[in-house]
UniProtKB/TrEMBL annotation:
Has a glutathione-disulfide oxidoreductase activity in the presence of NADPH and glutathione reductase. Reduces low molecular weight disulfides and proteins. GO terms for molecular function: glutathione disulfide oxidoreductase activity. It comes from Acrobeloides nanus. Keywords: Coiled coil, Disulfide bond, Electron transport, Membrane, Redox-active center, Transmembrane, Transmembrane helix, Transport. This is Glutaredoxin domain-containing protein.
Length: 200
């Protein structure tokens, strides 16, 4: 038996050695690479599952917060609806307020601090260097009766939007109207007729 084994190794031993070398140099790294790739794929799938679950939790939390916000807003509206509304104060007349303002000074602008159109109209008027004695800006969003005054402006001038620009008691319009009047030179004529004082 031993001579046969010895003969086998003598005839085929180098094949075995060569095969082992090939296994170490080629096959084993290839198998190891495949295993690593599979491990990476599995890890990626696991990470994606974790991310998906995390996103689901975030979305669920967002929806829950949104629902709570909507519910709170609904309760606030219901509470507000139960309070008797007084659209007009017994001791305040918005039309009289407007008339008193436009009669007091030659140039009056009804404006809002956050309105870009109001800013543009005020910038146009600022180029005339009007004296504070002849020029007043009324910021409605800083007044208690803002909505009432704005509604009264709508009744008086045909539009409740701001700005509303008055010269010598007459409304010349809003931002676009003021810009057009400035471009055509009508504002300067109106100011001259109104005897407005200018800074030198």
């Amino acid at each position: 038996m031993i001579p046969e084994v010895q003969s086998f190794f003598e005839n085929y031993g180098w094949y075995m050695v060569l095969g082992f070398i090939v296994y170490l140099l080629l096959i084993k790294p290839y198998i190891s690479n495949i295993q690593q790739q599979r491990a990476l794929i599995n890890q990626k799938k696991y990470d994606e599952q974790i991310d998906a679950k995390h996103q689901e939790k975030i979305e669920a939390a967002r929806l829950r917060m949104q629902a709570e916000y909507e519910e709170e807003r609904k309760r606030a509206k219901e509470k507000e609806s139960q309070i008797p509304k007084t659209t007009k104060s017994l001791d305040f007349d918005p039309l009289a307020y407007i008339q008193s303002k436009v009669n007091r000074k030659p140039v009056v602008v009804f404006s809002k601090t956050t309105c870009p159109y109001c800013r543009k109209a005020k910038q146009i008027l600022s180029t005339y260097r009007l004296s504070p004695d002849d020029y007043e800006i009324i910021e409605l969003d800083q007044l208690k009766h803002c909505d009432e005054i704005q509604s009264a402006l709508g009744s008086l001038t045909g539009a409740r939007t701001v700005p509303r620009v008055f010269i010598k008691g007459d409304c010349i319009g809003g931002c676009d109207d003021t810009a057009q009047a400035h471009k055509e030179g009508r504002i300067e004529k109106l100011l001259t007729i109104a005897n407005v004082n200018f800074y030198q």
